[in-house]
Amino acid sequence: MDGFGIRIEGLRKRYGEGDTAVDALKEVNMTVAPGEVVGLIGPSGSGKTTLLKCLGAVIEPTAGRMTLGDEVIYDGGWKISDLKALRRDRIGFVFQAPYLIPFLDVTDNIALLPMLAGRPNGAARARAQELLEALDVGHRARAEPSQLSGGEQQRVAIARALANQPPVILADEPTAPLDSERALAVIRILNRMARQYDTAVIVVTHDEKIIPTFKRIYHIRDGTTHEEAGEGREV
Amino acid sequence: MISLAGRDILHSWGKFVFTGVGLGLLIGATLTMAGVYRGMVDDARVLLDNSGADIWVVQKDTLGPYAEPSSLRDDAYRALLGMPGVARAANVTYLNMQVQRGGGNGGDVRVMVVGFEPGEPGEPPYLVAGRQITRSHYEAVADVRTGFALGERIRIRRHDYTVVGLTRRMVSSGGDPMVFIPLKDAQEAQFLKDNDAIVNERARTAANPALNRPGVPGLLEAIQASQTISRSVNAVLVQVRQGQDAEAVAEPIRRWKHLQAYTRAQMEEILVAKLIATSAKQISMFLVILAVVSAAIVAFIIYTMTLGKIREIAVLKLIGTRSRTIAGMILQQALGLGAIGFVVGKISSALWAPFFPKYVLLEPGDALRSFVAVMIICAIASTLAIRAALRVDPATAIGG
User: Fold this and answer.
1) Could you tell me if the ipTM is greater than 0.95?
2) Is B51 domain-assigned?
3) CB nearest A58 (choices: B7, B394, B399)
4) Does the residue B206 lie in any domain?
5) Is A207 on the interface with B (CB under 8 A)?
6) Per-residue pLDDT reduced to its tens digit, B153-209
7) Do residues B110 and B237 share a domain?
8) What is the model's pTM?
9) How far is the C-alpha of B53 from the C-alpha of B120, rounded, in Å?
10) Residue numbers of A between 141 and 170 with CB closer than 8 Å to B
11) Measured between beta carbons, which residues in chain A are less than 8 angstroms from residue B7?
12) CATH number of A6-16+30-229
């Protein structure tokens, strides 16, 4: 493994204080290389969502260290002042449901992120078109989200996550609403995009259909991660 | 950068347009209320302009002739003509009454009957049809708002009059259109008793030995005639000589003639500040209520629309959209709604204003002020929705 997309060391998250304090994350250690897709699995209440929120700079961890690419973004405190810019430019999000903006067409749903980052409209739309072509939905560029199938919507959501070429993508149960075939298609796309754009991808899931596709899996139990090798089945 | 507000409006344009139309009708009602007030003020000014007077001379200690009853002897004008600076003076009477159409066989119309002397101040300054009164009796010039036609016969008290001319913008401060008739006819109409009352009065006079003395021929007839002939008018309209200051002419009238004399500015003050002051307050209250209702509607609509987009807003915040971009989107939508509403309101008020019984004056300045007010109200109304949007936790976009 050459370098890493994201590295998490000794991450902790405690909710509340004193007697009512709850340690949602006790000891999280993860490393995901650029171009790699890893699975993060665990039972309900194990801390998956809390970890995702910490990685997504939505909530602040209590302790630990996070490094994105070669930059430390958290070390007992945020090392970056503009967390919105961090989320916009350096972290891609794929949600359980696509959550596309219904009043923007497919192209602009993707182009919005580069535009928010200050890129010219033309360049942002060109980037969106490039991603749509790469995800085989280029012909739906002018369609509205409501006109797309569930699979197409999820591909557009992946394209949006890649729009600003972030070093890491956080995917929160991206295959939950899909049938086996489409779920495997999404994982295939995530693998392809990770390799193509050198992006580290963390897929939070308990979808049994896709777990065998990961080469590496992080189990999280009681707020603590355990790494294990996956089957790495080809999809 | 994409206009998120514009795209959202285009995406759900039907909802926006219909909401805007509803709001617009409310704004139209607001503009119309303002127009009604402006119309009242303008009617008052036009009434003063068209009377052709520089000074209104009325009964002492009254605000007549428009705001209070006023009664003057009809020869008072002769004394006024002798005052320094007075060029012309003429008697006028004003009487609000129901006038019957078609010589008493049609419906009736509420009007202000104005008695004037043809060619003197008080005469309608211009006609839109027909001619001025040329005969001494039983001809009338009517404001077009009466609905009377040229040649139509109308009944005032017990006499029929022929409408020989039509004028416009001649209405009383109460909004009743004016009908102009010769002064003598108007005096009779104003003070005429019914026949039974006259017969009764004559009998009482004849039964009074002091008034019906034997050996004094003609005394009783003279007394009875004086009882039925009116020698009173409501006001004398005075025009001052060229270059004369109206106040300088009015002051000696007040001092030496024991009459009240109002200049144009004072009469305007009476009509606008006193006579329609209560109406103006009433309309102001309506305007305030309509503004508050409009604000509440915009706030409710924008708030509801924002709540319907909570998930999208959470996603936008999660992917790094700045708060000002989201606030700007909501603010622009509120302003867009206000703009649609204003356009609809302006058009609708212009369309329905002519159908109002009283003059509705829609001034461009009022429209501009209303537009600014609508925009401010919409901006304020959007703060509730902006507050709700900014409180959305981006973490809600992530499941769990």
Assistant:
1) no
2) no
3) B394
4) no
5) no
6) 999 888 899 999 999 888 887 788 999 999 989 988 877 777 888 888 888 888 988
7) yes
8) 0.75
9) 10
10) 144, 160
11) 103-104, 108
12) 3.40.50.300
